[in-house]
Specification:
The protein is α/β, with parallel strands linked by helices. Strand 3, helix 2 and strand 4 form a beta-alpha-beta unit. It contains 14 helices and eleven strands. The chain has two domains: 117 residues, NAD(P)-binding Rossmann-like Domain (Rossmann fold), CATH 3.40.50.720; 201 residues, Rossmann fold (3-Layer(aba) Sandwich). The protein starts with a strand and ends in a 9-residue tail after the last helix. It has a six-stranded parallel β-sheet, sandwiched between helices. The chain binds 1,4-dihydronicotinamide adenine dinucleotide. 1,4-dihydronicotinamide adenine dinucleotide binds next to helix 4 and helix 6. This is Hydroxyacid dehydrogenase. Belongs to the D-isomer specific 2-hydroxyacid dehydrogenase family. One of its GO terms (biological process) is L-serine biosynthetic process. GO terms for molecular function: (S)-2-hydroxyglutarate dehydrogenase activity; D-lactate dehydrogenase (NAD+) activity; NAD binding; phosphoglycerate dehydrogenase activity.
Length: 339
Protein backbone atom coordinates (compact mmCIF):
# COMPACT_ATOMS: atom_id res chain seq x y z
CA UNK A 1 0.00 0.00 0.00
CA UNK A 2 1.26 3.47 -0.83
CA UNK A 3 2.77 5.41 2.06
CA UNK A 4 3.08 9.15 2.64
CA UNK A 5 6.57 9.99 3.77
CA UNK A 6 7.83 13.40 4.89
CA UNK A 7 11.50 14.43 4.99
CA UNK A 8 12.29 17.35 7.30
CA UNK A 9 15.40 19.52 7.12
CA UNK A 10 16.43 18.34 3.66
CA UNK A 11 18.48 20.53 1.37
CA UNK A 12 17.65 20.49 -2.39
CA UNK A 13 20.60 18.23 -3.22
CA UNK A 14 19.51 15.74 -0.52
CA UNK A 15 16.00 15.73 -2.03
CA UNK A 16 17.51 15.08 -5.44
CA UNK A 17 19.66 12.22 -4.09
CA UNK A 18 16.72 10.56 -2.31
CA UNK A 19 14.48 10.98 -5.36
CA UNK A 20 17.16 9.31 -7.48
CA UNK A 21 16.50 6.17 -5.35
CA UNK A 22 12.83 6.24 -6.38
CA UNK A 23 12.95 2.64 -7.61
CA UNK A 24 13.63 1.50 -4.00
CA UNK A 25 10.77 3.64 -2.63
CA UNK A 26 8.48 2.99 -5.60
CA UNK A 27 5.28 2.81 -3.60
CA UNK A 28 5.77 6.00 -1.62
CA UNK A 29 4.59 9.58 -1.98
CA UNK A 30 7.59 11.66 -0.89
CA UNK A 31 7.24 15.15 0.60
CA UNK A 32 10.26 17.32 1.36
CA UNK A 33 10.86 20.48 3.34
CA UNK A 34 14.01 22.38 4.29
CA UNK A 35 12.30 23.26 7.59
CA UNK A 36 13.18 21.31 10.72
CA UNK A 37 10.48 19.64 12.81
CA UNK A 38 9.88 20.75 16.41
CA UNK A 39 7.15 22.14 18.68
CA UNK A 40 7.75 25.53 17.10
CA UNK A 41 8.11 24.23 13.53
CA UNK A 42 5.08 22.11 12.70
CA UNK A 43 4.03 21.57 9.08
CA UNK A 44 0.45 22.32 8.02
CA UNK A 45 0.08 18.75 6.72
CA UNK A 46 0.66 15.99 9.27
CA UNK A 47 -1.03 12.96 7.66
CA UNK A 48 2.19 11.04 7.15
CA UNK A 49 2.81 7.33 7.68
CA UNK A 50 6.52 7.93 8.13
CA UNK A 51 8.83 10.89 8.70
CA UNK A 52 12.57 11.34 8.37
CA UNK A 53 14.45 13.87 10.49
CA UNK A 54 18.01 14.94 11.30
CA UNK A 55 19.41 15.88 14.72
CA UNK A 56 18.37 19.52 14.32
CA UNK A 57 14.71 18.45 14.63
CA UNK A 58 13.24 17.75 18.08
CA UNK A 59 10.57 15.08 18.05
CA UNK A 60 8.84 15.57 21.39
CA UNK A 61 5.71 13.89 22.74
CA UNK A 62 3.73 16.99 21.65
CA UNK A 63 5.14 16.80 18.13
CA UNK A 64 4.32 13.08 17.90
CA UNK A 65 0.77 13.73 19.09
CA UNK A 66 0.20 15.96 16.05
CA UNK A 67 0.86 13.15 13.54
CA UNK A 68 -2.35 11.07 13.68
CA UNK A 69 -1.29 8.12 11.46
CA UNK A 70 2.46 8.10 12.07
CA UNK A 71 4.02 4.61 12.23
CA UNK A 72 7.71 5.11 11.57
CA UNK A 73 10.57 7.59 12.02
CA UNK A 74 13.83 7.27 10.08
CA UNK A 75 16.40 9.51 11.69
CA UNK A 76 19.27 10.44 9.39
CA UNK A 77 21.75 10.13 12.25
CA UNK A 78 23.41 7.67 14.60
CA UNK A 79 22.24 9.41 17.79
CA UNK A 80 18.51 9.51 18.50
CA UNK A 81 18.36 11.65 21.65
CA UNK A 82 16.40 14.28 19.63
CA UNK A 83 13.45 11.83 19.58
CA UNK A 84 11.33 11.14 22.67
CA UNK A 85 11.70 7.36 22.49
CA UNK A 86 9.33 6.71 25.40
CA UNK A 87 6.58 8.71 23.70
CA UNK A 88 7.30 7.06 20.34
CA UNK A 89 7.09 3.61 21.88
CA UNK A 90 3.84 4.32 23.69
CA UNK A 91 2.35 5.62 20.42
CA UNK A 92 3.54 2.45 18.63
CA UNK A 93 5.91 4.41 16.39
CA UNK A 94 9.02 2.45 15.35
CA UNK A 95 12.32 4.30 14.97
CA UNK A 96 15.31 3.41 12.78
CA UNK A 97 18.67 5.14 12.82
CA UNK A 98 21.87 4.98 10.80
CA UNK A 99 24.12 2.91 13.05
CA UNK A 100 27.31 3.49 11.13
CA UNK A 101 28.02 5.88 8.30
CA UNK A 102 31.26 7.52 9.12
CA UNK A 103 32.99 6.58 12.32
CA UNK A 104 36.22 7.62 10.59
CA UNK A 105 34.49 10.86 9.50
CA UNK A 106 33.83 12.02 13.07
CA UNK A 107 37.20 10.76 14.32
CA UNK A 108 39.00 12.76 11.60
CA UNK A 109 37.08 15.88 12.71
CA UNK A 110 38.02 15.28 16.35
CA UNK A 111 41.66 15.39 15.26
CA UNK A 112 40.95 18.50 13.20
CA UNK A 113 39.80 20.19 16.40
CA UNK A 114 42.77 18.85 18.39
CA UNK A 115 45.29 20.11 15.81
CA UNK A 116 43.53 23.47 15.49
CA UNK A 117 44.13 23.95 19.21
CA UNK A 118 47.51 22.25 19.64
CA UNK A 119 49.03 24.18 16.70
CA UNK A 120 46.87 27.36 16.93
CA UNK A 121 45.97 26.92 13.28
CA UNK A 122 42.98 29.25 13.27
CA UNK A 123 44.87 32.02 15.12
CA UNK A 124 47.80 31.67 12.69
CA UNK A 125 45.56 31.88 9.65
CA UNK A 126 43.48 34.70 11.13
CA UNK A 127 46.57 36.79 11.93
CA UNK A 128 47.82 36.64 8.35
CA UNK A 129 44.44 37.20 6.82
CA UNK A 130 43.34 40.03 9.11
CA UNK A 131 46.60 41.96 9.53
CA UNK A 132 49.08 40.49 7.04
CA UNK A 133 51.33 39.94 10.09
CA UNK A 134 53.72 36.98 9.63
CA UNK A 135 55.05 37.07 13.22
CA UNK A 136 54.94 33.73 15.06
CA UNK A 137 54.81 35.50 18.43
CA UNK A 138 52.22 33.75 20.63
CA UNK A 139 51.64 30.97 18.12
CA UNK A 140 53.78 28.27 19.76
CA UNK A 141 51.89 25.01 20.11
CA UNK A 142 52.76 21.56 21.40
CA UNK A 143 53.57 18.16 19.87
CA UNK A 144 51.00 15.38 19.95
CA UNK A 145 53.71 12.71 19.76
CA UNK A 146 54.37 11.38 23.25
CA UNK A 147 51.29 13.09 24.76
CA UNK A 148 48.43 11.14 26.31
CA UNK A 149 44.93 11.12 24.86
CA UNK A 150 42.00 9.89 26.95
CA UNK A 151 39.25 8.40 24.80
CA UNK A 152 35.93 8.38 26.66
CA UNK A 153 33.70 5.90 24.82
CA UNK A 154 35.56 3.34 22.73
CA UNK A 155 32.81 2.35 20.31
CA UNK A 156 32.86 2.83 16.55
CA UNK A 157 34.13 6.43 16.57
CA UNK A 158 36.43 5.93 19.58
CA UNK A 159 38.14 3.04 17.75
CA UNK A 160 39.07 5.31 14.82
CA UNK A 161 40.26 8.03 17.21
CA UNK A 162 42.54 5.48 18.90
CA UNK A 163 43.90 4.31 15.55
CA UNK A 164 44.64 7.89 14.43
CA UNK A 165 46.16 8.78 17.83
CA UNK A 166 48.52 5.82 17.53
CA UNK A 167 49.54 7.14 14.11
CA UNK A 168 50.56 10.40 15.80
CA UNK A 169 52.64 8.46 18.35
CA UNK A 170 50.32 9.34 21.24
CA UNK A 171 49.76 7.26 24.37
CA UNK A 172 46.13 6.17 24.59
CA UNK A 173 43.98 5.58 27.67
CA UNK A 174 40.42 4.32 27.23
CA UNK A 175 37.35 4.54 29.43
CA UNK A 176 34.14 2.69 28.64
CA UNK A 177 31.65 0.97 30.97
CA UNK A 178 31.90 -1.92 28.48
CA UNK A 179 35.64 -2.19 27.78
CA UNK A 180 36.55 -3.78 24.44
CA UNK A 181 39.48 -5.99 25.36
CA UNK A 182 40.27 -7.08 21.82
CA UNK A 183 40.46 -3.41 20.81
CA UNK A 184 42.80 -2.77 23.75
CA UNK A 185 44.99 -5.67 22.62
CA UNK A 186 44.91 -4.59 18.95
CA UNK A 187 46.02 -1.02 19.72
CA UNK A 188 47.94 -1.78 22.91
CA UNK A 189 46.29 0.67 25.30
CA UNK A 190 44.94 0.32 28.86
CA UNK A 191 41.40 0.94 30.07
CA UNK A 192 41.35 2.98 33.28
CA UNK A 193 38.66 4.41 35.57
CA UNK A 194 37.32 7.72 34.23
CA UNK A 195 38.85 9.80 37.04
CA UNK A 196 42.32 8.35 36.34
CA UNK A 197 41.92 8.97 32.61
CA UNK A 198 40.99 12.60 33.32
CA UNK A 199 43.96 13.11 35.64
CA UNK A 200 46.49 11.60 33.21
CA UNK A 201 45.39 12.87 29.78
CA UNK A 202 46.73 15.89 27.89
CA UNK A 203 43.74 15.63 25.58
CA UNK A 204 40.34 14.22 26.60
CA UNK A 205 37.99 13.38 23.73
CA UNK A 206 34.34 12.34 24.18
CA UNK A 207 32.76 9.61 22.01
CA UNK A 208 29.84 8.33 24.06
CA UNK A 209 26.09 8.64 23.56
CA UNK A 210 23.98 11.28 25.30
CA UNK A 211 21.51 9.68 27.71
CA UNK A 212 20.06 10.69 31.08
CA UNK A 213 23.02 8.87 32.71
CA UNK A 214 25.60 10.79 30.67
CA UNK A 215 23.99 14.23 31.09
CA UNK A 216 26.77 16.55 32.36
CA UNK A 217 29.17 13.61 32.69
CA UNK A 218 31.84 16.32 32.43
CA UNK A 219 30.63 18.45 35.32
CA UNK A 220 32.51 20.83 37.61
CA UNK A 221 34.09 18.02 39.62
CA UNK A 222 35.21 15.90 36.64
CA UNK A 223 36.56 18.93 34.77
CA UNK A 224 38.52 19.88 37.89
CA UNK A 225 40.14 16.42 37.81
CA UNK A 226 41.61 17.11 34.35
CA UNK A 227 45.32 17.79 34.01
CA UNK A 228 46.09 21.54 34.17
CA UNK A 229 46.29 22.90 30.63
CA UNK A 230 44.62 19.85 29.05
CA UNK A 231 42.30 20.08 26.03
CA UNK A 232 38.69 18.90 26.06
CA UNK A 233 37.24 17.79 22.72
CA UNK A 234 33.51 17.13 22.31
CA UNK A 235 32.12 15.77 19.05
CA UNK A 236 29.42 13.69 20.82
CA UNK A 237 26.53 15.75 22.19
CA UNK A 238 26.53 19.12 23.95
CA UNK A 239 24.64 17.88 27.02
CA UNK A 240 27.53 15.60 28.04
CA UNK A 241 29.50 18.68 29.12
CA UNK A 242 28.25 21.19 31.71
CA UNK A 243 28.79 24.37 29.69
CA UNK A 244 28.95 26.66 32.72
CA UNK A 245 31.57 24.45 34.39
CA UNK A 246 33.60 24.44 31.17
CA UNK A 247 33.49 28.23 30.87
CA UNK A 248 34.67 28.54 34.47
CA UNK A 249 37.60 26.12 33.95
CA UNK A 250 38.69 27.93 30.77
CA UNK A 251 38.33 31.35 32.34
CA UNK A 252 40.40 30.27 35.36
CA UNK A 253 43.08 28.95 32.99
CA UNK A 254 42.79 25.44 34.40
CA UNK A 255 42.05 23.98 30.96
CA UNK A 256 44.23 24.73 27.95
CA UNK A 257 41.37 24.84 25.49
CA UNK A 258 38.26 23.20 24.13
CA UNK A 259 37.25 21.96 20.70
CA UNK A 260 33.49 21.65 20.45
CA UNK A 261 31.49 20.44 17.49
CA UNK A 262 28.40 20.24 19.68
CA UNK A 263 26.94 22.59 22.28
CA UNK A 264 24.19 22.42 24.85
CA UNK A 265 21.28 24.48 23.50
CA UNK A 266 22.88 24.44 20.04
CA UNK A 267 19.38 24.53 18.50
CA UNK A 268 18.72 27.90 20.16
CA UNK A 269 22.08 29.40 19.32
CA UNK A 270 21.73 28.41 15.64
CA UNK A 271 18.55 30.40 15.28
CA UNK A 272 18.35 32.96 18.05
CA UNK A 273 16.18 35.42 16.15
CA UNK A 274 13.60 32.71 15.55
CA UNK A 275 13.86 31.69 19.22
CA UNK A 276 13.33 35.27 20.42
CA UNK A 277 10.38 36.01 18.15
CA UNK A 278 8.73 32.61 18.73
CA UNK A 279 8.27 33.69 22.36
CA UNK A 280 8.64 30.12 23.67
CA UNK A 281 11.63 30.17 26.00
CA UNK A 282 10.19 27.39 28.17
CA UNK A 283 12.46 24.41 28.52
CA UNK A 284 15.55 26.35 27.45
CA UNK A 285 18.41 27.35 29.70
CA UNK A 286 19.26 31.00 29.07
CA UNK A 287 22.36 30.81 31.24
CA UNK A 288 23.75 28.13 28.93
CA UNK A 289 22.87 30.19 25.85
CA UNK A 290 24.88 33.10 27.29
CA UNK A 291 27.72 30.73 28.29
CA UNK A 292 27.86 29.54 24.66
CA UNK A 293 28.48 33.13 23.56
CA UNK A 294 31.27 33.43 26.12
CA UNK A 295 32.82 30.23 24.72
CA UNK A 296 32.57 31.48 21.13
CA UNK A 297 34.56 34.58 22.08
CA UNK A 298 37.37 32.69 23.86
CA UNK A 299 40.61 32.46 21.85
CA UNK A 300 41.45 28.95 23.09
CA UNK A 301 38.07 27.56 22.09
CA UNK A 302 37.16 26.36 18.64
CA UNK A 303 33.50 25.75 17.90
CA UNK A 304 32.09 24.14 14.77
CA UNK A 305 28.37 23.87 13.96
CA UNK A 306 27.74 20.12 14.56
CA UNK A 307 29.62 19.45 11.37
CA UNK A 308 31.69 16.38 12.25
CA UNK A 309 29.49 14.05 10.20
CA UNK A 310 29.51 16.30 7.16
CA UNK A 311 31.58 14.78 4.38
CA UNK A 312 30.37 13.83 0.91
CA UNK A 313 31.03 10.14 1.54
CA UNK A 314 29.33 10.09 4.95
CA UNK A 315 26.22 11.94 3.74
CA UNK A 316 25.74 9.55 0.84
CA UNK A 317 26.05 6.63 3.26
CA UNK A 318 23.48 8.30 5.59
CA UNK A 319 20.99 8.82 2.77
CA UNK A 320 21.52 5.30 1.37
CA UNK A 321 20.86 3.73 4.78
CA UNK A 322 17.85 6.00 5.40
CA UNK A 323 16.31 4.96 2.08
CA UNK A 324 16.95 1.28 2.99
CA UNK A 325 15.40 1.87 6.44
CA UNK A 326 12.28 3.38 4.87
CA UNK A 327 12.10 0.54 2.32
CA UNK A 328 12.38 -1.92 5.25
CA UNK A 329 9.43 -0.21 6.96
CA UNK A 330 7.38 -0.35 3.75
CA UNK A 331 8.16 -4.06 3.35
CA UNK A 332 7.21 -4.77 6.96
CA UNK A 333 10.80 -5.56 7.97
CA UNK A 334 12.20 -2.77 10.13
CA UNK A 335 15.97 -2.46 9.77
CA UNK A 336 18.40 -0.70 12.12
CA UNK A 337 15.67 -0.45 14.72
CA UNK A 338 16.31 1.70 17.80
CA UNK A 339 15.25 -0.33 20.84
P1 LIG B 1 28.95 3.59 19.64
O1 LIG B 1 27.64 3.14 20.17
O2 LIG B 1 29.66 2.75 18.61
O3 LIG B 1 29.97 3.82 20.86
C1 LIG B 1 29.63 4.49 22.03
C2 LIG B 1 30.46 3.91 23.16
O4 LIG B 1 30.22 4.71 24.33
C3 LIG B 1 30.11 2.46 23.51
O5 LIG B 1 31.28 1.67 23.51
C4 LIG B 1 29.49 2.57 24.90
O6 LIG B 1 29.75 1.44 25.72
C5 LIG B 1 30.20 3.81 25.41
N1 LIG B 1 29.55 4.44 26.57
C6 LIG B 1 28.26 4.34 26.99
N2 LIG B 1 28.11 5.03 28.13
C7 LIG B 1 29.31 5.55 28.44
C8 LIG B 1 29.78 6.33 29.54
N3 LIG B 1 28.98 6.71 30.52
N4 LIG B 1 31.09 6.68 29.54
C9 LIG B 1 31.91 6.28 28.56
N5 LIG B 1 31.52 5.53 27.49
C10 LIG B 1 30.23 5.18 27.44
O7 LIG B 1 28.71 5.07 19.10
P2 LIG B 1 29.60 5.89 18.04
O8 LIG B 1 29.16 5.57 16.67
O9 LIG B 1 31.02 5.74 18.39
O10 LIG B 1 29.10 7.39 18.35
C11 LIG B 1 29.31 8.02 19.61
C12 LIG B 1 28.47 9.29 19.68
O11 LIG B 1 29.00 10.23 18.75
C13 LIG B 1 27.00 9.13 19.24
O12 LIG B 1 26.19 8.67 20.29
C14 LIG B 1 26.62 10.51 18.80
O13 LIG B 1 26.03 11.22 19.87
C15 LIG B 1 27.96 11.17 18.45
N6 LIG B 1 28.03 11.52 17.03
C16 LIG B 1 28.28 12.83 16.69
C17 LIG B 1 28.34 13.22 15.38
C18 LIG B 1 28.63 14.63 14.98
O14 LIG B 1 28.41 15.00 13.82
N7 LIG B 1 29.15 15.47 15.86
C19 LIG B 1 28.13 12.25 14.30
C20 LIG B 1 27.92 10.90 14.75
C21 LIG B 1 27.85 10.56 16.07
Amino acid sequence: MSKNIAFFGTKPWEKEYIESKKEILADAALWFTEEILSNDHMPKETNFDAISVFVDSTVTKEVLAKFPILQFIATRSTGYDHIDMVAAKSKGVEVSSVPSYGANTVAEMAFGLILSLSRKIFESYDRIRESGNWSVEGLRGFDLMGKTIGVVGTGKIGRHVISIAKGFGMNVIGYDPKPNLSLAAEFDFPYKPLNDLLAESDVVTLHLPYMPETHHLMDDIRISLMKPGALLINTSRGGIVDTNALVKALKDGRLGGAGLDVLEEEGVIKDEIDFLVSGKPEGHDWKTVIANHVLIDMPNVIITPHNAFNTKEAIERILDTTVENIAGYMNGQIKNKVE
